[in-house]
Amino acid sequence: MFLKIYEENPNPKDIREVAEALRKGAIVIYPTDTIYGIGCDINNARAVEMIARIKNINLKKDHLSFVCYDLSQIAEYTKSLDNSTFKVMKRNLPGPFTFIVNANSNVPKLFKNNKKTVGIRVPDNNIIRELVKELGNPILSTSVHDDDEIIEYTTDPELIYEKYQHMVDIVIDGGYGDNKPSTIVDCTGGGFDILRQGKGELEF
């Protein structure tokens, strides 16, 4: 399904429909404040395994990111954040950042692995945030990459749909995406280590 949703004012009926599909195990491609993402309900093991197959990732080894609605939802999956980490996250989120933090015991249980860290995203995009809010828990997230060696990320939702329509259940058209990924910040070592400089400039 190819579904147009407007970021300024996402239609609640459309958001409910997609959230319901996610609960049933749907794989969804959605816009963020950076590039388009592909994700599913973190609580649906079959959907998580499907994404691993589509993206050719190893759930035991590869870094996984959760899209959360806000900072309070982050607390359910992370060990308690120290004051400086919390302040920096609060200042920069919602925004184009992935913060790598220490995972609590809820994360390994979800993925049957021994993951000690998890990437956290709170994108500055109403569509995906309203979707997470309606779903009631985070969405597993990974980027939609392009096969083109020059263009790393596809920005046109219609082209994304053409490529992925037989692999995913829903592609949300939220307008053109960006072609710059999020900035990845590792907060697990007591500081703020920029692993990838993307769209976001971290403010302290």
UniProtKB/TrEMBL annotation:
Annotated ranges, domain YrdC-like: 12-200
One GO MF term attached to the UniProt entry: double-stranded RNA binding
Transmembrane segments: none
Superkingdom of the organism of origin: Bacteria
Gene3D superfamilies recorded: DHBP synthase
UniProt cross-references to PANTHER family, sorted A to Z: DHBP SYNTHASE RIBB-LIKE ALPHA/BETA DOMAIN-CONTAINING PROTEIN (PTHR42828), THREONYLCARBAMOYL-AMP SYNTHASE (PTHR42828:SF3)
UniProt name for this protein: tRNA threonylcarbamoyl adenosine modification protein, Sua5/YciO/YrdC/YwlC family
Organism: Saccharicrinis carchari
